[in-house]
């Protein structure tokens, strides 16, 4: 049954949209560079190729870059901005890609607050880490922050929302994946949780804690923000469920679909910010 539902999701995710939305896909890695965003010479990375093809079929045009100077330019030409990034993006990177300026970071956050959509994938939470007790402004916008991860393993996600692209699955159903699972912290109190990380059968110290959000949506000012911790592995990037969830995020953040993202974090993961069992 689950496999059939995933195929339904994939089929629904490729219906052409009436209007093409333009999305900036930013993959600069000032920390660890994941293999799915690593380019070989001038060739696009694995994730860039997947998103461009998904966009072609679903009404999105992706502009892919690692050049942080893009945030000093005209952001109004994008309907949404997507991050698969790591580290302090204003700092140097091993690949020599130009950094984001401090002013560019402010322009990004201001653009989202003014209504531009934002999609964060996997290590987007491992970006602009907080210093001290208060979350970094970027982390406050995103709604959560990477804390640690253990060994890759199969684990289950629990669906807790009828968010676009997830409606054909049963609420509370466990969705098994093998993935590098992020354990996160500093969750915002207004998250609309879509998928919950079920920890009870997981191995490793980072997961010895109550269940916590894996995928969520929230508002940052007038901007729609979506995040999923999925996306470390190449095989996840070709998984129909991942396609459906990510495209659902892009559809919602760009205003192609509407959904009531009433905060539910206190109901779905009431101990999300407790880092030990």
Percent of sequence in beta strands: 15-25%
Strand order of the largest sheet: 2-1-3-4-11-10-9-6-7
Largest sheet: 9 strands, mixed
Which parts are unreliable, with pLDDT below 50 for 5 consecutive residues or more?
1-16
Radius of gyration: 17 Å
Distance between the termini: 33 Å
The helix/strand series, from N terminus to C terminus, equals HEHEEHEHEEEEEEEHH
Shape: globular
Give the helix/strand class.
Answer: alpha/beta
Mean pLDDT: 91
Q: Helical amount among residues, as a percent range?
A: 10-25%
Number of β-strand runs = 11
Number of helices: 6
Explained architecture:
There is one protein chain. The strands form two sheets. The chain has a nine-stranded mixed sheet with strand order 2-1-3-4-11-10-9-6-7. Strands 5-8 form a two-stranded antiparallel sheet. Strand 3, helix 3 and strand 4 form a beta-alpha-beta unit. The protein has helices at 2-12, 46-58, 102-113, 137-142, 240-253, 265-268, and strands at residues 21-26, 60-65, 80-83, 117-121, 145-149, 153-159, 174-179, 182-185, 192-197, 212-220, 223-228. The chain is α/β, with parallel strands linked by helices and 277 residues long. The model is unreliable at 1-16 (pLDDT under 50). Helix 1 crosses helix 5.
């Amino acid at each position: 049954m689950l496999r059939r539902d995933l195929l339904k999701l994939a089929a629904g995710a490729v219906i052409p949209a009436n209007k093409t939305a333009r999305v900036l896909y930013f993959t600069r890695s000032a920390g660890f560079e994941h293999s799915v965003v690593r380019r070989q010479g001038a060739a696009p990375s694995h994730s860039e190729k997947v998103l461009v093809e998904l966009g072609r079929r679903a009404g999105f045009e992706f502009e892919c870059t690692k050049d942080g100077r893009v945030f000093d330019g005209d952001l109004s030409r994008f309907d949404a901005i997507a991050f698969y990034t790591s580290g302090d993006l204003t700092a140097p990177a091993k690949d020599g890609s130009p950094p984001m300026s401090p002013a560019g970071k402010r322009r990004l956050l201001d653009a989202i607050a003014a209504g531009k959509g934002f999609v964060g994938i996997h290590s987007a939470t491992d970006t602009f880490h907080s210093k001290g007790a208060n979350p970094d402004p970027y982390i406050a916008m995103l709604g959560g922050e990477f804390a640690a991860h253990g060994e890759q393993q199969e684990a289950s996600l629990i669906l807790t929302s009828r968010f676009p692209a997830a409606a054909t699955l049963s609420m509370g159903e466990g969705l098994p994946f093998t993935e590098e699972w992020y354990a996160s912290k500093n969750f915002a109190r207004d998250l609309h949780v879509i998928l919950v990380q079920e920890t009870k059968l997981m191995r490793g110290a980072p997961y010895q804690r109550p269940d916590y959000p894996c995928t969520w949506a929230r508002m940052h000012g007038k901007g729609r923000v979506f995040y999923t911790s999925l996306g470390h592995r190449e095989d996840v990037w070709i998984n129909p469920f991942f396609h459906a969830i990510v495209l659902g995020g892009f559809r919602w953040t760009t205003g192609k679909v509407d959904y009531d993202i009433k905060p539910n974090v206190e109901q779905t993961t009431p101990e999300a910010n407790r880092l030990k069992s």
